[in-house]
């Protein structure tokens, strides 16, 4: 494959990515259900718009380079290289945004302006093509390495895909820089290394950068969204507490540990008194406000090692590792008092909150069903005492803690 064909492949490759993304994003105008599916597949993800702009700039730049000799030089040399450098800068910016660093303008834009000024200045001063190529190679290598730096954040916790992209991108950045240096220092080649071979290797490296930044970025977006989907499967989006499924998953290892001698683990069930009345009298929006306030009040009374779950309606569960029943009762009482002291300001009224709480501890022979049955028995005892109470169930008998 000759150099001109490689340039055409770079132009068409970037253009095809632009076209594919364009038609993919058109479905964002579909009905709400389809829009939700699209959002899960990457539309609107951090950096997507910047990544698309990078593809457009690079497609136009390589197209102008391919037409060198047909169009005027000011289009195919200074303008084409300006667009190319901007494209690689936006490539790096997209990876920075994907990594949560939206401050890329502070660092990447000054380098872009400096690189463009140096290249255009070299062209105006009629410096040699090798010198101009060194400027563009150094700038492109910097932007590619900057993108790799964004991917490399949190290396130890990174996925294999992310690590592979970091290593391969760094290697390609070095190849691009080496191309510029060799063209300048060895204009006539060296031994069996001809100038054409150096140019070809450099363009192949840029082609691989295009593929890596293109498909690699899309795979990263997909991976990130897959992780978000998995998180949403176990999180209640309203209260940000674990949902029923997530709480049962968090509970499972502690049930297994309960079979071994050691400190006990407690379970507390919190049920809002008359939550149905809140929904019936004030509407579901007010009910949602109450649930959020209830979750926040519970979280403020818990340790970092404790786990809060929303079981449904006005019912929450609290997992208290390494906690005896006496300590669980104290935590439950703090939660009850915090709820009673925190009225919710709804649109039409101020809603006072009270809750009944049932506590128990895990036994060696417990199952999830048996554990919750025992906590529910304590909860029913608290309700039977008039609500706004805390009760504990350990060996079949319940004890109510007066409010």
UniProtKB/TrEMBL annotation:
<feature type="transmembrane region" description="Helical">
    <location>
        <begin position="197"/>
        <end position="221"/>
    </location>
</feature>
<feature type="transmembrane region" description="Helical">
    <location>
        <begin position="74"/>
        <end position="95"/>
    </location>
</feature>
<protein>
    <recommendedName>
        <fullName>diguanylate cyclase</fullName>
        <ecNumber>2.7.7.65</ecNumber>
    </recommendedName>
</protein>
<dbReference type="InterPro" id="IPR043128">
    <property type="entry name" value="Rev_trsase/Diguanyl_cyclase"/>
</dbReference>
<dbReference type="InterPro" id="IPR000160">
    <property type="entry name" value="GGDEF_dom"/>
</dbReference>
<feature type="transmembrane region" description="Helical">
    <location>
        <begin position="132"/>
        <end position="152"/>
    </location>
</feature>
<keyword id="KW-0472">Membrane</keyword>
<keyword id="KW-0812">Transmembrane</keyword>
<keyword id="KW-1133">Transmembrane helix</keyword>
<dbReference type="InterPro" id="IPR050469">
    <property type="entry name" value="Diguanylate_Cyclase"/>
</dbReference>
<dbReference type="InterPro" id="IPR029787">
    <property type="entry name" value="Nucleotide_cyclase"/>
</dbReference>
<dbReference type="Pfam" id="PF00990">
    <property type="entry name" value="GGDEF"/>
</dbReference>
<keyword id="KW-0548">Nucleotidyltransferase</keyword>
<feature type="transmembrane region" description="Helical">
    <location>
        <begin position="107"/>
        <end position="126"/>
    </location>
</feature>
<dbReference type="GO" id="GO:0052621">
    <property type="term" value="F:diguanylate cyclase activity"/>
</dbReference>
<feature type="domain" description="GGDEF">
    <location>
        <begin position="263"/>
        <end position="395"/>
    </location>
</feature>
<keyword id="KW-0808">Transferase</keyword>
<feature type="transmembrane region" description="Helical">
    <location>
        <begin position="164"/>
        <end position="185"/>
    </location>
</feature>
